[in-house]
C-alpha cells in the first residue's frame, strides 16, 4: 500500500502532468500541424485532431473548476488562521449522529464545490474536525450549499429532481459519515499530513499565550497557505481534468443512448457519465437537464447526486487526504446507495 501511494505521488502524477502538457501543446499547434497534411502521415493528423478536441474539453473542465479550487484553498487558509482550535473542539458535536448530520449541513456555511471542499476538509481535520463530520461534509457540501441549490432550482424548478437531489445527498452523506463513525478514528483513515497535531482537546487555558499577530500578518499568512494548497491540489486537478477530457473524447456518447430507459442500467450509465464528465457541481444541473428528456428520472437524479460526491479529479484529491482503503469506501458506499435509490425511484415512478 505504501509503495502504491509512492508510485502515485512520484510517477503517475508527474507523468500525467507531462502528458497533459504535451496534449495541450499539440492542441494549441493543431491548426498549424494540420496545414502540413501533405507531408505528415494521416495517422499523425488524426492524432492532432484528437489532441485539439481533448485540449478544448480539458480547458473547459479546468477553467470551470480552478476558481472553485481557489475558493476552497482560500477558505482553508481562513480556517487555519482565524478559527481557534480550542473553540472548535468545544462547539462541534462529538457523537456519531450529531457529527454526521451536522457535517451534511456544513456546506450551507462553506459554499464550495467538489474541488474546493477537499483542501478545506483537510484543513478542518487538522483543526480537530471529527471524522464522521468531515466525511459527511466532504460528500454533501458540493450539493447542499446556496450556489448549487440555486442553480438546480433554476434548471429543474421546485419539483422531484430538486428536492430529491437535496434529500438524497443529505441521506447518503449522513449515512456514510455515520458508518465512518464506526470505522476507527482519524489516525486509521486520514493521512498523517491531514491529522491534527494533537488529539488532546484540552480546554484549559495555557499559562503563557503568545502575542496575537496583527490582522495584516494574519491575512498574509492566510494567502500564503491558500497559494501553497492551490498548487499542491492543482496538480491533481490538472491530471484529473486531463483524464476526464481523454474519456470524453475517446468514449462515444451515442453508445450511452442505447441504454437510457432500463431501470437499473440507465442509473449505472448516468453515474458513469457523471464520473466521466467531471463537471463542477455549480453547473451540472444544466448538463443533466439536457438528458432529462432521454433518460429516466432516477438516472438523472443519480447523475446529480453521485457526480458531485465522486468524480475523476476529486478522487485523485481524496488520495492526498485519506488512506487508500478509506478512499475505496468513500467511493463504494455512495455508489451503492445512489444505484439503489435511483433504481427504486425508477421502479416506483415508472421512469
Distance between the termini: 42 Å
Task: Give me the Rg, rounded.
Answer: 22 Å
DSSP helix fraction = over 70%
Number of strands: 0
Helix segment tally: 17
Q: What is the structural class?
A: mainly alpha
Report the mean per-residue pLDDT as an integer.
78
- What is the makeup of the main sheet? none
Order of helices and strands: HHHHHHHHHHHHHHHHH
Overall domain count: 1
Which regions are unreliable across 5 or more consecutive residues at pLDDT < 50? 1-5, 199-209
Could you say which overall geometry the principal axes of the C-alpha atoms support?
Answer: globular
β-strand percent reads: under 5%
Report on this model:
The chain is mainly α and 351 residues long. The chain has one domain (2-196, 218-349). The chain is built from 17 helices and no strands. The relative contact order is 0.13. The model is unreliable at 1-5 and 199-209 (pLDDT under 50).
Amino acid at each position: 500500500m505504501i509503495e502504491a501511494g509512492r508510485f502515485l505521488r512520484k510517477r503517475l502524477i508527474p507523468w500525467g502532468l507531462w502528458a497533459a502538457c504535451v496534449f495541450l501543446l499539440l492542441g494549441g499547434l493543431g491548426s498549424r500541424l494540420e496545414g502540413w497534411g501533405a507531408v505528415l502521415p494521416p495517422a499523425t493528423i488524426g492524432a492532432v485532431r484528437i489532441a485539439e478536441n481533448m485540449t478544448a474539453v480539458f480547458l473547459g473542465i479546468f477553467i470551470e473548476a480552478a476558481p472553485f479550487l481557489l475558493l476552497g484553498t482560500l477558505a482553508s487558509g481562513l480556517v487555519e488562521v482565524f478559527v481557534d482550535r480550542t473553540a472548535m473542539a468545544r462547539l462541534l458535536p462529538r457523537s456519531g449522529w450529531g457529527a454526521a448530520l451536522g457535517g451534511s449541513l456544513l456546506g450551507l456555511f462553506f459554499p464550495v464545490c467538489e474541488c474546493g471542499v477537499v483542501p478545506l476538509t483537510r484543513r478542518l481535520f487538522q483543526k480537530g474536525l471529527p471524522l464522521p463530520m468531515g466525511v459527511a461534509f466532504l460528500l454533501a457540501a458540493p450539493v447542499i450549499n446556496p450556489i448549487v441549490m440555486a442553480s438546480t432550482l433554476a434548471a429543474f424548478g421546485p419539483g422531484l429532481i430538486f428536492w430529491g437531489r437535496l434529500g438524497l445527498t443529505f441521506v447518503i452523506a449522513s449515512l456514510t459519515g455515520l458508518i465512518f463513525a464506526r470505522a476507527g478514528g482519524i489516525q486509521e483513515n486520514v493521512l498523517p499530513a491531514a491529522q491534527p497535531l494533537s488529539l488532546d482537546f484540552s480546554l484549559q487555558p495555557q499559562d503563557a499565550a503568545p502575542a496575537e499577530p496583527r490582522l495584516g500578518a494574519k491575512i498574509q499568512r492566510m494567502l500564503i497557505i491558500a497559494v501553497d494548497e492551490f498548487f499542491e491540489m492543482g496538480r491533481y486537478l490538472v491530471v484529473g481534468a486531463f483524464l476526464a477530457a481523454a474519456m470524453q473524447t475517446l468514449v462515444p456518447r451515442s453508445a450511452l443512448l442505447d441504454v437510457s430507459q432500463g431501470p437499473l442500467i440507465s442509473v449505472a450509465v448516468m453515474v458513469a457519465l457523471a464520473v466521466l464528465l467531471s463537471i463542477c457541481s455549480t453547473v451540472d444541473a444544466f448538463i443533466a437537464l439536457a438528458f432529462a428528456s432521454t433518460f429516466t428520472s432516477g438516472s438523472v437524479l443519480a447523475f446529480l447526486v453521485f457526480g458531485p460526491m465522486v468524480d475523476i479529479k476529486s478522487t485523485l484529491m481524496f488520495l492526498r487526504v485519506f488512506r487508500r482503503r478509506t478512499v475505496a469506501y468513500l467511493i463504494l458506499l455512495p455508489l451503492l446507495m445512489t444505484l439503489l435509490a435511483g433504481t427504486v425511484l425508477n421502479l416506483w415512478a415508472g421512469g
